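Schema walk-through. Below, the input block comes first and the output block second. Nothing else is stored per chain. Lengths vary across the set, and this one has 334 residues.
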Amino acid sequence: MNAKTPEARNRGVAIAMACLLGIASIACAESGVKGPSGTLHVTEVTTKREPLAAGCRYQLWIPADVSVVRSLFVINMRAAGKRLFFYDPEWRAMAARHAAAMLYCEFEAKGVRDNGYGRSMLRACEQFASALQRPELKHAPFVLWGHSMGGRVAQDFVRYCPSRVLAFHIALRAHPTPEDLMHEEAAAMRVPGLYLMGAEDGKPKDIRAHFHRARHKGSPRAWVWLPGQTHWPRGMGFTHDQTTDEDWRAWAAHDVVVPWTEAMIQLRLPEDADPRTGPVQLASVDATRGWLGDVSTGEVATHAQFDGDQSKASWFPNEEVAQAWSRFSYPAPR
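--- output ---
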């Protein structure tokens, strides 16, 4: 469903009015929304000084028939994030397959550690857990996705609360990142990540340095070139979305992102994990195993057979994801 349709506007008005009354729940199976059905919930975190929490509105989509939410796909704002949250059938289907919910954060910030937005995100989960009587939402681990400045939010939340992050995606970080956001401690380095960069975008040196620094220390990260792509999908900008499903899917790199994300859930989220009982102990990823890909050529091999510079190569959990990456992105810009 196009973001400018009357149905979308009416839903936005209904949600806004419901927010005045606190957390609202709205059926989300209306005509035009693709993928599995579910319910949409809304809450608003109020600004607090102690502990510091930034005021913000959040929306939560829970697939139908999910009795216990085991993880949260946390998506940051801008038009691309809005499309991913509301209208992407593949992400909805992935959430349903893995008993995950999707959380949409309606803020834009350069970071989350020192301005209260990190605590605000956690507070939103606490509010949803209490109001919906779903205690697992307080502790369910995050899969982060952020475009542009939202990518910086994802990047910084990994530093802020690495134990809560199952995996993260940084999509098209076009602007320079301050050095203080570049630094990652050991716990953050262990979090798997995808760097999705448009081949025709700014290709900032700093975010490539972030990737290389992490890989040099053995972090399970991968660099993904988006062939022919600029900072936005064709037909999309800050205030409009006329992109086609085909153009959106290519820009969002679903052929790589979906299997990579599912592999990370399977690797890191124990089968017996129950976030209803408390924080989830995520499994570590052994980045000395798996597959590696040469970022310059797209050639892939097992970790043991890779003959290039391992510290500069993309890391993948298995052959399926490695081959999907190679087919999708190459030949790449040199």
